[in-house]
Amino acid sequence: xxxxxxxxxxxxxxxxxxxxxxxxxxxxxxxxxxxxxxxxxxxxxxxxxxxxxxxxxxxxxxxxxxxxxxxxxxxxxxxxxxxxxxxxxxxxxxxxxxxxxxxxxxxxxxxxxxxxxxxxxxxxxxxxxxxxxxxxxxxxxxxxxxxxxxxxxxxxxxxxxxxxxxxxxxxxxxxxxxxxxxxxxxxxxxxxxxxxxxxxxxxxxxxxxxxx
Length: 212
Hints:
By secondary structure, the protein is of the alpha+beta class. It is built from four helices and five strands. The chain has helices at residues 11-16, 48-54, 74-77, 134-184, and strands spanning 36-38, 60-66, 69-73, 89-91, 94-98. It has a five-stranded antiparallel sheet. Strand 4 (89-91) and strand 5 form a beta hairpin. The radius of gyration is 40 Å and the shape is elongated. The model has no long low-confidence stretch (mean pLDDT 80).
Protein backbone atom coordinates (compact mmCIF):
# COMPACT_ATOMS: atom_id res chain seq x y z
CA UNK A 1 0.00 0.00 0.00
CA UNK A 2 1.34 3.40 -0.96
CA UNK A 3 1.94 5.90 1.80
CA UNK A 4 0.71 9.47 1.68
CA UNK A 5 3.31 11.80 0.21
CA UNK A 6 3.62 15.34 1.46
CA UNK A 7 2.71 17.90 -1.24
CA UNK A 8 5.98 19.71 -0.48
CA UNK A 9 9.14 18.22 1.11
CA UNK A 10 9.35 20.79 3.92
CA UNK A 11 5.80 20.52 5.28
CA UNK A 12 6.34 17.68 7.77
CA UNK A 13 9.52 19.34 9.06
CA UNK A 14 7.66 22.62 9.50
CA UNK A 15 4.90 20.99 11.55
CA UNK A 16 7.39 19.19 13.81
CA UNK A 17 9.78 22.12 14.36
CA UNK A 18 9.98 23.84 17.74
CA UNK A 19 9.94 27.62 17.43
CA UNK A 20 10.72 30.56 19.73
CA UNK A 21 13.77 29.11 21.44
CA UNK A 22 16.74 31.47 21.81
CA UNK A 23 19.31 31.32 19.02
CA UNK A 24 22.61 29.82 20.18
CA UNK A 25 24.63 32.23 18.05
CA UNK A 26 22.71 35.42 18.91
CA UNK A 27 21.28 34.77 22.36
CA UNK A 28 22.32 38.20 23.67
CA UNK A 29 20.66 40.08 20.80
CA UNK A 30 17.23 41.68 21.03
CA UNK A 31 15.62 39.63 18.23
CA UNK A 32 17.22 36.28 18.98
CA UNK A 33 14.13 34.07 19.15
CA UNK A 34 14.01 31.39 16.45
CA UNK A 35 10.80 32.12 14.59
CA UNK A 36 11.96 31.74 10.98
CA UNK A 37 11.75 28.66 8.74
CA UNK A 38 13.54 28.23 5.40
CA UNK A 39 11.61 26.36 2.73
CA UNK A 40 14.73 25.86 0.61
CA UNK A 41 17.00 24.47 3.33
CA UNK A 42 14.31 22.51 5.21
CA UNK A 43 16.28 22.89 8.43
CA UNK A 44 15.63 23.88 12.05
CA UNK A 45 14.20 27.25 13.06
CA UNK A 46 16.52 30.26 13.13
CA UNK A 47 16.45 33.91 14.17
CA UNK A 48 16.33 37.23 12.35
CA UNK A 49 20.12 37.55 12.28
CA UNK A 50 20.66 34.04 10.92
CA UNK A 51 18.30 34.85 8.10
CA UNK A 52 20.38 37.86 7.10
CA UNK A 53 23.61 35.86 7.09
CA UNK A 54 22.60 32.36 5.90
CA UNK A 55 19.19 32.57 4.18
CA UNK A 56 19.28 35.96 2.51
CA UNK A 57 17.99 34.88 -0.93
CA UNK A 58 15.91 31.88 0.24
CA UNK A 59 12.18 31.35 0.65
CA UNK A 60 11.58 32.06 4.33
CA UNK A 61 8.34 32.24 6.30
CA UNK A 62 7.95 33.78 9.74
CA UNK A 63 6.10 31.95 12.50
CA UNK A 64 4.10 33.96 14.99
CA UNK A 65 2.36 33.21 18.27
CA UNK A 66 -1.26 33.35 19.33
CA UNK A 67 -2.26 32.13 22.79
CA UNK A 68 1.05 30.23 23.02
CA UNK A 69 0.42 28.40 19.77
CA UNK A 70 2.28 28.72 16.48
CA UNK A 71 0.55 30.46 13.59
CA UNK A 72 1.57 31.61 10.14
CA UNK A 73 0.13 34.40 8.05
CA UNK A 74 -2.15 33.30 5.23
CA UNK A 75 -0.50 35.80 2.89
CA UNK A 76 2.82 33.97 3.30
CA UNK A 77 1.81 30.31 3.36
CA UNK A 78 -0.81 30.38 0.59
CA UNK A 79 1.90 31.31 -1.92
CA UNK A 80 3.64 27.97 -1.46
CA UNK A 81 0.93 25.60 -0.16
CA UNK A 82 -2.72 24.71 -0.70
CA UNK A 83 -4.47 25.67 2.54
CA UNK A 84 -8.04 25.10 1.36
CA UNK A 85 -10.31 23.65 4.03
CA UNK A 86 -8.28 25.01 6.95
CA UNK A 87 -9.91 27.46 9.37
CA UNK A 88 -8.32 30.92 9.35
CA UNK A 89 -8.50 33.66 11.99
CA UNK A 90 -7.86 37.38 12.09
CA UNK A 91 -5.30 38.23 14.77
CA UNK A 92 -3.73 41.70 15.08
CA UNK A 93 -5.35 42.72 11.78
CA UNK A 94 -3.68 39.81 9.93
CA UNK A 95 -5.33 36.62 8.75
CA UNK A 96 -3.50 33.57 10.08
CA UNK A 97 -3.90 29.81 10.49
CA UNK A 98 -2.61 27.47 13.19
CA UNK A 99 0.15 25.01 12.35
CA UNK A 100 -1.00 22.19 14.64
CA UNK A 101 -3.94 20.94 16.67
CA UNK A 102 -4.59 22.76 19.94
CA UNK A 103 -5.94 21.39 23.24
CA UNK A 104 -9.69 21.67 23.56
CA UNK A 105 -11.01 24.18 26.10
CA UNK A 106 -12.57 22.65 29.20
CA UNK A 107 -16.20 23.69 29.41
CA UNK A 108 -18.33 23.13 32.47
CA UNK A 109 -21.76 21.58 32.10
CA UNK A 110 -23.29 20.63 28.80
CA UNK A 111 -21.17 21.25 25.72
CA UNK A 112 -22.66 23.83 23.34
CA UNK A 113 -24.05 22.55 20.08
CA UNK A 114 -21.97 23.57 17.05
CA UNK A 115 -22.63 22.97 13.39
CA UNK A 116 -19.02 22.81 12.17
CA UNK A 117 -16.30 20.58 13.62
CA UNK A 118 -12.77 19.69 12.64
CA UNK A 119 -12.86 16.30 10.93
CA UNK A 120 -9.78 15.14 12.86
CA UNK A 121 -9.80 16.54 16.40
CA UNK A 122 -13.43 17.65 16.70
CA UNK A 123 -12.66 21.27 17.59
CA UNK A 124 -15.51 23.65 16.82
CA UNK A 125 -15.00 25.77 13.73
CA UNK A 126 -16.37 29.20 12.97
CA UNK A 127 -17.20 28.58 9.33
CA UNK A 128 -17.70 25.74 6.89
CA UNK A 129 -14.07 24.59 7.03
CA UNK A 130 -12.93 20.97 7.42
CA UNK A 131 -9.84 21.35 9.60
CA UNK A 132 -8.76 23.57 12.48
CA UNK A 133 -5.07 23.54 11.58
CA UNK A 134 -2.57 22.65 8.90
CA UNK A 135 -1.53 19.57 10.88
CA UNK A 136 -5.09 18.24 11.01
CA UNK A 137 -5.38 18.64 7.25
CA UNK A 138 -2.26 16.50 6.77
CA UNK A 139 -3.73 13.80 9.04
CA UNK A 140 -6.97 13.93 7.06
CA UNK A 141 -5.12 13.56 3.76
CA UNK A 142 -3.21 10.55 5.08
CA UNK A 143 -6.44 8.95 6.28
CA UNK A 144 -8.21 9.52 2.97
CA UNK A 145 -5.20 8.16 1.11
CA UNK A 146 -5.27 5.00 3.23
CA UNK A 147 -8.98 4.48 2.58
CA UNK A 148 -8.50 5.05 -1.15
CA UNK A 149 -5.69 2.48 -1.26
CA UNK A 150 -7.84 -0.02 0.64
CA UNK A 151 -10.64 0.42 -1.91
CA UNK A 152 -8.16 -0.03 -4.78
CA UNK A 153 -6.92 -3.24 -3.19
CA UNK A 154 -10.48 -4.55 -2.87
CA UNK A 155 -11.11 -3.78 -6.55
CA UNK A 156 -7.94 -5.64 -7.58
CA UNK A 157 -8.87 -8.69 -5.48
CA UNK A 158 -12.40 -8.74 -6.92
CA UNK A 159 -11.02 -8.55 -10.46
CA UNK A 160 -8.71 -11.49 -9.77
CA UNK A 161 -11.64 -13.52 -8.43
CA UNK A 162 -13.72 -12.63 -11.49
CA UNK A 163 -10.91 -13.76 -13.80
CA UNK A 164 -10.65 -17.05 -11.92
CA UNK A 165 -14.42 -17.58 -12.19
CA UNK A 166 -14.34 -16.86 -15.92
CA UNK A 167 -11.42 -19.26 -16.34
CA UNK A 168 -13.33 -22.06 -14.60
CA UNK A 169 -16.43 -21.41 -16.71
CA UNK A 170 -14.41 -21.44 -19.94
CA UNK A 171 -12.76 -24.72 -18.93
CA UNK A 172 -16.15 -26.30 -18.27
CA UNK A 173 -17.46 -25.07 -21.62
CA UNK A 174 -14.45 -26.58 -23.43
CA UNK A 175 -15.05 -29.95 -21.74
CA UNK A 176 -18.73 -29.88 -22.76
CA UNK A 177 -17.84 -29.01 -26.37
CA UNK A 178 -15.37 -31.89 -26.50
CA UNK A 179 -18.01 -34.36 -25.31
CA UNK A 180 -20.51 -33.11 -27.91
CA UNK A 181 -17.95 -33.37 -30.70
CA UNK A 182 -17.12 -36.96 -29.82
CA UNK A 183 -20.80 -37.85 -29.75
CA UNK A 184 -21.32 -36.31 -33.20
CA UNK A 185 -18.41 -38.36 -34.57
CA UNK A 186 -20.02 -41.53 -33.20
CA UNK A 187 -17.28 -42.16 -30.71
CA UNK A 188 -18.15 -43.88 -27.50
CA UNK A 189 -17.32 -41.40 -24.81
CA UNK A 190 -17.56 -44.14 -22.22
CA UNK A 191 -15.72 -47.15 -23.78
CA UNK A 192 -16.66 -50.60 -22.43
CA UNK A 193 -14.21 -52.29 -20.21
CA UNK A 194 -12.73 -55.31 -22.03
CA UNK A 195 -13.95 -58.64 -20.58
CA UNK A 196 -11.51 -60.48 -18.40
CA UNK A 197 -9.52 -63.31 -20.05
CA UNK A 198 -11.10 -66.73 -19.34
CA UNK A 199 -8.94 -69.05 -17.34
CA UNK A 200 -8.66 -72.71 -18.35
CA UNK A 201 -9.92 -75.08 -15.74
CA UNK A 202 -7.29 -77.47 -14.64
CA UNK A 203 -8.08 -81.18 -15.16
CA UNK A 204 -7.96 -83.83 -12.48
CA UNK A 205 -4.36 -84.97 -12.07
CA UNK A 206 -3.76 -88.64 -12.90
CA UNK A 207 -1.27 -90.89 -11.19
CA UNK A 208 1.33 -92.73 -13.16
CA UNK A 209 0.75 -96.52 -13.31
CA UNK A 210 2.56 -98.58 -10.70
CA UNK A 211 5.46 -100.48 -11.99
CA UNK A 212 5.26 -104.26 -11.56
